[in-house]
């Protein structure tokens, strides 16, 4: 029996009440949902509420707000104001000369959004080996004298990460404060969560869960918001930032082990003034979770690095009023003149990003996209695939990194002197729902190192052609398009 027939069988007052409530919900939805929301996202929510009202309304009430609670956003504003005021008179290294004319306005925009300055005299070194990066971070922690700040989306104690945990234990035993932040939802249900927490407790680390959903303690926000950042700061002198979590390359998940999946990631070891900005990001999140600021940490202390790279840290996420990372990516895509290389495990662009990528090809820019041949998250994987035809027809070259590896690196390089690397995917979740951290780097030598890595990815991958893609079965196309629609529900 359909809804209309069912309602017709009710008493007149019940039918009238149902129709009045249904109409009111639809009118309110049309007024409320489009406000400060992308048109595609608003339309997806309206369709959900109009076609499946009860489920649609409940889902919207649960995950319809893409921002953190107002109190949390106010904390971010206060910290930004403090950083801007404290650092306004400081000089963070000597900047490289002859910047392209579009670069200073980009830096100004990033500074206005995230409050962190561009700094010079930085050193940066890529670490593309999965275990190599874990070992490098462990070595830096072993050298700690003042403090260790660890913030990772996923942090697990296992055989691969044992060196890091031993280094933390050693640091605590020497009286070095070790502060640890890890995302609540990303870790809470992982196989080694309890073991990891017990080990942090036993060593005496100052650890906290990020974005916990604990209604009884008054900590309530949209449950699918995540702190997706990955960073390490040691003594304010050495930092690490990139795409890799602190866990085994299988994430210790039985489904990954069964499929033989292993993650391929990229971290950057940095030194110089930019480390102070990374520390500021950590301290911001630490303050947001604890309402405390550790004593004895000077984020204005400038340490000259072992290079002359210009670097700027760009934090983003639902604690900010705008999508900082998306604006950064768009500005770079429109600035490119020769080539654009995008590496992203989850590439689900909005209209603006898709237009920027395809429009670059029309300007004569060579654009290449590196993604995984196999996906670890079905909905995102199929949503990503739904864009392949448009990208291929526009002239974007797509490289598929071979299974059973998940290419998890997140980077963007343009021309020969500018790159971005960090935790941010190029999808709507990373733009609107995840707290991310990206590092903008200007310097030919760093981009040349990135190009070598991209060449390695290209050698290991196979190119997807439009001819091959046009032979996809209908069921795959249907799944891809359905996933694309659900990706707009933000």
Automatic annotation (TrEMBL):
Topology within the bilayer: Multi-pass membrane protein
Record flagged with keyword Cytoplasm: no
Chief localization: membrane
EC numbers for this chain: 2.7.8.-
Places the protein is found: Cell membrane
Keywords: Cell membrane, Lipid biosynthesis, Lipid metabolism, Membrane, Phospholipid biosynthesis, Phospholipid metabolism, Repeat, Transferase, Transmembrane, Transmembrane helix
GO molecular function, one term: cardiolipin synthase activity
Start and end residues of each PLD phosphodiesterase domain: 223-250, 403-430
Superkingdom: Bacteria
One CC-aspect GO term: plasma membrane
InterPro entries, per database record: Cardiolipin_synthase, CLS_N, PLD-like_dom, PLipase_D/transphosphatidylase
Annotated CDD domains: PLDc_EcCLS_like_2 (cd09158)
GO BP field: cardiolipin biosynthetic process
Transmembrane segments: 12-33, 45-64
Protein name: Cardiolipin synthase
Organism encoding this protein: Microbacterium esteraromaticum
């Amino acid at each position: 029996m359909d809804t209309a027939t069912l309602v017709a069988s009710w008493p007149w007052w019940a039918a009238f009440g149902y129709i009045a409530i249904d109409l009111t919900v639809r009118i309110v939805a049309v007024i409320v949902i489009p406000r400060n929301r992308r048109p595609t996202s608003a339309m997806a929510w309206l369709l959900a509420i109009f076609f499946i009202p009860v489920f649609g309304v409940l889902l919207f009430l649960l995950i319809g707000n893409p921002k953190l609670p107002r109190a949390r956003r106010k904390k971010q504003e206060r910290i930004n104001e403090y950083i801007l005021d404290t650092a306004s008179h400081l000089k963070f290294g000597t900047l490289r000369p002859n910047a392209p004319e579009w670069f200073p306005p980009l830096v100004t925009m990033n500074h206005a959004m995230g409050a962190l300055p561009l700094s010079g005299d930085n050193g940066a070194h890529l670490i593309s080996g999965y275990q190599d990066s874990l070992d490098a971070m462990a070595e830096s922690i072993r050298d700690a004298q003042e403090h260790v700040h660890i913030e990772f989306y996923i942090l697990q104690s296992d055989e691969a990460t044992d060196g890091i945990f031993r280094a933390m234990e050693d640091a605590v035993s020497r009286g070095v404060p070790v502060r640890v932040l890890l995302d609540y939802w990303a870790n809470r249900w992982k196989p080694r969560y309890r073991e990891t927490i017990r080990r942090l407790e036993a060593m005496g680390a100052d650890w906290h869960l990020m974005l916990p959903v604990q209604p009884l303690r008054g900590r309530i926000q949209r449950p699918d918001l995540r702190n997706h950042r990955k960073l390490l700061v040691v003594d304010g002198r050495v930092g690490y930032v990139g795409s890799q979590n602190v866990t085994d390359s299988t994430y210790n998940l039985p489904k990954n082990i069964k499929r033989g999946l292993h993650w391929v990631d990229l971290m950057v070891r940095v030194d110089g003034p930019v480390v102070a900005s990374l520390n500021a990001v950590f301290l911001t999140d630490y303050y947001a979770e604890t309402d405390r600021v550790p004593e004895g940490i000077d984020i204005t202390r400038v340490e000259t690095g072992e290079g002359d790279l210009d670097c700027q840290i760009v934090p983003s996420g639902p604690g900010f009023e705008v999508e900082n990372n998306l604006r950064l990516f768009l500005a770079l895509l429109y600035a490119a003149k020769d080539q654009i290389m995008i590496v992203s495990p989850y590439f689900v662009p909005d209209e603006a990003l898709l237009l920027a990528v395809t429009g670059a090809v029309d300007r004569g820019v060579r654009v290449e996209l590196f993604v995984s041949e196999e996906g670890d998250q079905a909905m995102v994987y199929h949503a990503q695939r739904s864009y392949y035809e448009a990208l291929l027809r526009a002239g974007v070259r797509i490289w598929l990194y071979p299974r059973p590896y998940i290419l998890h690196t997140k980077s963007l390089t343009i021309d020969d002197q500018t790159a971005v690397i960090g935790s941010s995917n190029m999808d709507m979740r990373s733009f609107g729902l995840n707290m991310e951290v990206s590092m903008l780097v200007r310097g030919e030598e760093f981009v040349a190192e990135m190009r070598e890595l991209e060449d390695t990815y290209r050698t290991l991958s196979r190119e997807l052609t439009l001819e091959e893609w046009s032979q996809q079965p209908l069921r795959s196309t249907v799944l891809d398009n359905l996933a694309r629609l659900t990706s707009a529900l933000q």
